[in-house]
Amino acid sequence: MPESYEIDVPNGIVTCRAWGEFTNEELRGHYRRLLADPQFHSRYCQLGDVCGVTTFTVDSETIEATARMGVFDAGVPRAFVAPPGVGYGLARMFSAYAQSQGQALEVFHDLATARAWMMAHPNRCP
Predict the structure, then answer these.
(1) 3-state DSSP call for residue 100?
(2) Are strands 45-57 and 77-81 parallel, antiparallel or unpaired?
(3) How far apart are CA 57 and CA 49, in angstroms?
């Protein structure tokens, strides 16, 4: 499966990564597994990295449905990192749907800037 996550419980950060071909099922499955993980808490921050994805085969309906799932609490900072092009556009689409649900999700081109924004956010990680 071309995605993984790590939960840093002491710092309240969920770091998610995807690579290779990323499909609808992998996107949906990622959040299902995260929700089922006993270490996960919805108040944790999220740092997502899709820079290693070579092909996106996700559709807008799956992006919208997944973004609106409410996996993370409203206002919790979530930062996605994506390269210029398709990945960045899809991450921005996900962000727009998530923001419509009260999520604080921004998309960046590099990990350092994403992490800095997340840690400086007023609702930063617990």
Answers:
(1) coil
(2) parallel
(3) 17
pLDDT digits (tens, 9 = 90+) for 14-71: 999 999 999 999 999 999 999 999 999 999 999 999 999 999 999 999 999 999 998 9
In the chain, % helix, strand, coil (3-state, to 5) comes to 35, 30, 35
pTM: 0.93
| Tokens representing residue 41 in the block | 């808490």
Report pLDDT digits (tens) over 88-113: 999 999 999 999 999 999 999 999 99
Q: Assess contact for 124 and 77: CB atoms under 8 A.
A: yes
- Kindly state the tokens that stand for 39: 């270490």
Q: CA 62 from chain center: how many Å?
A: 14
Could you tell me how many helices (H) and strands (E) the chain has, helices first? Answer: 4, 5
Determine how β-strand 104-108 pairs with β-strand 3-8. unpaired
